[in-house]
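Me: I hope this is not a bother. Any chance you could explain this protein sequence and its structure tokens? It all follows right here:
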Amino acid sequence: MMIRNVLVASVLAVGLAVGLTGFAFAGGSGELKTYTATGAFDDVNESVADAILNRGFVIDYHGFVGNMLKRTGKELGSSKVYYKDAEFYQFCSAKLTRTAVAADPGNIGFCPYVVVVYELESAPGIIKIGYRPLPQTGPAASKMALGNINAVLDGIVREATMAATN
């Protein structure tokens, strides 16, 4: 089971790296769009998961990138701690992705979607929630489909931010 988990994590890491590289070449700005919430990280993080689930999406993977960076710092010769906490959620929408793929089969590379939540070590209590907007490329139908995905991602992040603020 442990070997399977390591294999799955390796495949996901390579897939994300390839996908993000392709994303940069596809005309995406590569900039994360973030919103700011204040409060306890766990509360804000729960708001993010709820906002995803509220739309009927299934969270495929919940990653703990902050823990990984802390754990591997020594082996990589760095003692700097950037995040107090940093996690991400990976999910996809069958409906949105099917529409995007129908417009341009290459749009499969934009699934899964990822929403990040992080708190900087240097700014405790200030939580950033964000996503990387997809580039609106290809024919008009593709641009519209990718724009719709961006709108959903933005809605998730805004909902989580507002829920955490209230």
